[in-house]
Each structure stands twice: as structure tokens, then as C-alpha cells.
Design goal:
Layout lengths: L12 H5 L13 H12 L10 E7 L3 H8 L4 H7 L4 E8 L12 H18 L3 E5 L4 H7 L6 E10 L9 H8 L25
Antiparallel strand pairs: 1-2, 2-4, 3-4
Helix pairs in contact: 2-5
Length: 200
């Protein structure tokens, strides 16, 4: 299933095709493909080139590890994320390596790395759904995470599947039309809330 965005202006193909399904096919992802995704994340830009991102990954080929990671998601996300062949957690290092000071841009940079990963996944025909609904304290406990690292989000990765596999409410959301705010609502110039001339 594909749901390309109906954009107002032409976009690069993987940007237009990227979307976040909850239904995933029962089909594994090759380790080589996963490695390519992490390589894409590796080359994201970051403040002072600190690269403050870490990924924890579990696949259904290691059921015990997969179940441990699934248990780090809120219950509502577990219901559908369990269909994905791969789960990941993203983590931000909260201080700079070069001076030990707090890095206020770490989460932003993790987002850039994940953005690279998502677009690379789309070019490989994979789908990915990001989740804020995680259990940070459980993640820290389960994975022995040291101080100075913050769980950020979870990712479910696989090949988009049949929406009818989902509970009815989620199946309806899966098939709903994609929407976005118009540009003038978030691109300002001159003062806050004043749409920039190029997006009016």
C-alpha cells in the first residue's frame, strides 16, 4: 500500500512517497538493508559534528530481544508495532564530548539522523513509523543505559502491509487521506505570525 503526498509543489520522490503505516507485512528485512539505513543516519549533520545519536535495534529473528523492546512501548503502540519485523529505539547523548557541557541541540540532531534513515528506507521500498509513546524509565532499566543519555523515540520498520490486519479504528486511520498545514501557517517573516510573502 502506498499513500503518496498530494503536495502543493513538486518534491523529490522519496519525500513524496514517505508515510507512516501501522500495518506491516510478515516479511523480514535483510541485515544489509538495515546496515545501509544506519549508514544514512551516520552521515547526518550535527552540532560540532558530535553525532549524538545512538540506535538500539531488535528484529523478530531474535524473539527474546524483540519482546524486550516491544515492552518499552506504551500499550497502544504495542498493539500494532508488534507487526513490524524490526523495532528501534533512538537515544540522544545529552552532553558534548569535546567539553562536557550540555548539548541543547542533541534531540534536534537525532531527528536529522532519523530523517536521513527514513528517506533512505523509502528509497529501498521500506516503511517506517516513528513513535513518541515510549517508556523512558523502562528503557533505561532494560538496556542499562548510563547517565547522560536520553531515550527519544521508537521506530517500527518493515514493508507496508494490509490495513485490515489492524483493529478497526486504526485501519480507518491507515486509509484516511493524508493532510498537512498550509505553508502560511508556519513560515513567517517580519514578525511572529506574519506569513512570509513567498507562501501567501
Amino acid at each position: 500500500m502506498e499513500k503518496p503526498a498530494e503536495t502543493s509543489y513538486p518534491l523529490h520522490d522519496p519525500l513524496q512517497r514517505r508515510w507512516s503505516p501501522r500495518a506491516f507485512a510478515d516479511r523480514p528485512i535483510a541485515d544489509k538493508q538495515l546496515t545501509i539505513l544506519f549508514e544514512a543516519a551516520r552521515w547526518a549533520s550535527s552540532c560540532f559534528n558530535e553525532q549524538p545519536w545512538q540506535f538500539i535495534v531488535a528484529t523478530k529473528s531474535t524473539p527474546q530481544e524483540y519482546e524486550r523492546m516491544l515492552s518499552c512501548l506504551v500499550e497502544g503502540n504495542q498493539k500494532w508495532a508488534k507487526l513490524a519485523p524490526v523495532l528501534m529505539l533512538t537515544v540522544a547523548r545529552s552532553t558534548f564530548d569535546h567539553n562536557g557541557k550540555a548539548n541543547p541541540h542533541a534531540w534536534h540532531d537525532v531527528g536529522l539522523a532519523v530523517g536521513n534513515l527514513v528517506i533512505q528506507a523509502t528509497t529501498l521500498g521500506l516503511s517506517l513509523h516513528q513513535m513518541a509513546g515510549i517508556l523512558p524509565d523502562r528503557i533505561r532499566e532494560v538496556y542499562g543505559m548510563p547517565q547522560g543519555f536520553d531515550p527519544v523515540a521508537a521506530l517500527a520498520l518493515g514493508f507496508a502491509g494490509d490495513p485490515t490486519l489492524l483493529p478497526e479504528e486504526l485501519a480507518q486511520r491507515e486509509q484516511a487521506t493524508r493532510t498537512r498545514k498550509p505553508l502560511w501557517e508556519f513560515v513567517f517573516s517580519g514578525q511572529w505570525g506574519q506569513p512570509a510573502t513567498m507562501v501567501k
